[in-house]
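Entry 14. Structure prediction run on the chain below.
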Amino acid sequence: MSFRPAQAARLADAVAEAFQPKIVGFKKVQSVKVVDSALVPTLPVRPRPAMNTAIAGVMGLRAAAGLTFLLPEW
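Output returned:
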C-alpha cells in the first residue's frame, strides 16, 4: 500500500464534512465549522530523536516531582 498525501488530505476533509452535522447533535451546540482544510505536506516528516528525548526527560522529571508530593512518607 502506497502513501498518497493528496488522497489523505481529501479523506480528512471528507470526514470533517461528514461529521459536522453529527457533532451538532452529540454536543448540543448551534453550529460546527471547519476552521482549516487539510493541507498536503510539501516536505517529509522526519523523526527528531534529540527533541523527543529532551521532551521525555522533562516529562519524566515532572512526573517524578509530582509523585514526591503525592506519595506518603515511608
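The CA atoms of residues 18 and 53 lie 38 Å apart.
Filed with the rest of this week's runs.
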